From TrEMBL:
One of its GO terms (molecular function) is pyrophosphatase activity. CDD domains: CYTH-like_Pase. The lineage of its organism: Eukaryota, Viridiplantae, Streptophyta, Embryophyta, Tracheophyta. SUPFAM superfamilies: CYTH-like phosphatases. InterPro entries: CYTH-like_dom_sf, CYTH_domain. PANTHER family: OS08G0299200 PROTEIN, TRIPHOSPHATE TUNNEL METALLOENZYME 3. Pfam families: CYTH. Residues 1-210 form the CYTH domain. This is CYTH domain-containing protein.
Length: 213
């Protein structure tokens, strides 16, 4: 179970302000391309599941890393996201081949692909994979320590570019969501950055074809 705090920022100005405020704590920046796969009938999406290939690197044709992930049964309440997630590394060249020919994903030697076939019947000849498309994301990763709560947190500040618009979000995976949310809210207040609790995830926005709160 992945547990994350998700706080939505209203615009690019708020994103820039928070980036500047957190800059001394910046550790790395990832350029990500996210692609989603399903059957033509959207079988996975109907079951609140998302199969994603994430490619890392600025060059679409030469990713430095790729990760296959299955997320299921998401719940998002008051800015706290809980979702069942499994991940596996994927050879970047194979990931590109599957992006070009999505049906190939069904033949990948992967526990995730076998799980999807067994539980949802997707990936075989009867329901081959199709690529639904996706979005691009720039993720800045910060290490933030809060002495008052005794927490060391990894913060992820996202700029997510869909075909229909751009969203901005601060995320933090944590085993102590109540404490972490309090730390993040105080951090944003100190930075003078407005925010709201996220009420939808990125995949939900992508499937809706519009920016959701």
């Amino acid at each position: 179970m992945e547990v994350e705090i998700k706080l939505r920022l209203p615009d690019a100005a708020a994103h820039r302000r928070l980036s500047t405020f957190l800059k001394p704590q910046l550790r790395r920046t990832h350029i990500q391309r996210n692609l989603f796969f399903d059957a033509a009938a959207r079988t996975l999406a109907a079951a609140t599941a998302a199969l994603r290939v994430r490619l890392y690197g600025p060059d679409d044709r030469a990713p430095v890393r790729a990760v296959l992930a299955l997320k299921r049964r998401p719940r998002l309440d008051a800015g706290v996201s809980r979702v069942e997630e499994v991940e596996e590394p994927l050879d970047p060249a194979l990931a590109l081949a599957c992006a070009d020919d999505p049906a190939r994903l069904g033949a990948v030697d992967s526990e995730i692909i076998r799980l999807v076939a067994a539980e949802y019947g997707v990936g075989g000849d009867a329901a081959p994979f199709v690529c639904l498309g996706g979005f691009r994301n720039t993720r800045s990763v910060f290490e933030h320590k809060d002495d008052s709560k005794g927490l060391g947190l990894v913060l992820e500040l996202d700029e997510t570019r869909f075909d229909f618009g751009t969203s901005y979000e601060l995320e933090c995976e944590t085993a102590e969501p109540d404490k972490a949310k309090e730390v993040l809210e105080r951090l944003l207040t100190d930075a003078g950055v407005p925010y709201e609790y996220s009420r939808s995830n990125k995949f939900g926005c992508f499937m809706a074809g519009k920016l959701l709160p």
